[in-house]
Amino acid sequence: MTDSNSPADLPDGVRQALDITKRGCAELLVEADWIAKLTRSARTGQPLRIKLGLDPTAPDIHIGHTVVLNKLRQLQDLGHTVIFLIGDFTSRIGDPSGRNATRPPLTLEQIKTNAETYYAQASLVLDPQKTEIRYNSEWSEPLGADGMIRLAAKYTLARLLERDDFTKRFKEGVPIAMHELLYPLMQGYDSVALKSDLELGGTDQKFNLLVGRELQREYGQEPQCILTMPLLEGLDGVEKMSKSKGNYIGIQEPPATMFAKLLSISDTLMWRYFELLSFRPMSEIAALKAEVQAGRNPKDAKVMLAREIVTRFHSAVAADAAEADFALRASGGIPDDIPELRLSLPEGGLALPQALKQAGLVPSTAEGVRMIEQRGVRIDGTVADDRTLKLAAGTVVLQVGKRKFARVTLG
């Protein structure tokens, strides 16, 4: 590319677009190329083509997944074309990125079901009217054996083995199936087929994104730029957000649950969430951070963040209710909307630890005993610290911790 503008010399619109692109990103490759693309787009009025490819390996997404979607929406709002690419073909191969073993491919039915659910949830972030939905089977299946061989001829085995997970598995003697080597090639070919100007992905996808850049060059296209976004830490602030680790916030969780989880993050992690999840200008976030450092209660900032996220995935009314619910729980009050159930009453009464387990408030009676001993259990708002207590006939509200409630009728 020939444009050589430096950030200091850029027109205001291009500089703003560059700032929005780089906000919270892990890496932008190659920045000079992206500046040139933005400058050309501003001059010609031709929107850039921005691609995100996703293999629908699971039907549900959490807010960690929305870090990349947020970036897409920001670029979409600048007027560029967003391509939401569903890897219905590559899902059948299975991407081993970040894994040390082969990932099982999905069935066509699993792919279809997951893709529909995934896009419906992604549309809570993206503007569906301005999103181009594509499936890579459109161009991957017509390739056939001849096309696949021609594609494979454009990349070397040595280059493929530079990928970290392949290198580790090769050194450790862990099998690498031949079809796995095709995955980065097929993902790269997606960029050729779509003529993408920019491809987004997590930091664990950097190698695959670079393959796309090189293949575009091989096919005589202008190479795409690459924008990698960091993997969001979960509620614990240590591990990346994951449903399997239990440190996640699902975007379809109830508003009150989502709100309470966001209020539970540390004061330090809060700013990371602001940068990657909030749509507030960075100048506004910086001012808020300065206020907190000057003595303002960090909880005020967390409430602002929680309200923004809950409003995005539910509504402003839901955010109001979630905030009120959180305040009620924090003051020891009992929310109105809690699960109600009926339990059978054995002769002599139902032991409290057993009642907690049957009500779904603890996973086991042993955990129930532990919570009672730690004074984490309440009956009708009063702490219950007697592990031998037996409940009699009637209706009571059982509470474990600050968030778990159940209205139980025994009889």
Automatic annotation (TrEMBL):
It catalyses: tRNA(Tyr) + L-tyrosine + ATP = L-tyrosyl-tRNA(Tyr) + AMP + diphosphate + H(+). A motif ('HIGH' region) lies at residues 56-65. ATP binds at residue 243. GO terms for cellular component: cytosol. The keyword Cytoplasm applies. PANTHER family: TYROSINE--TRNA LIGASE, TYROSYL-TRNA SYNTHETASE. This is Tyrosine--tRNA ligase. The gene is tyrS.
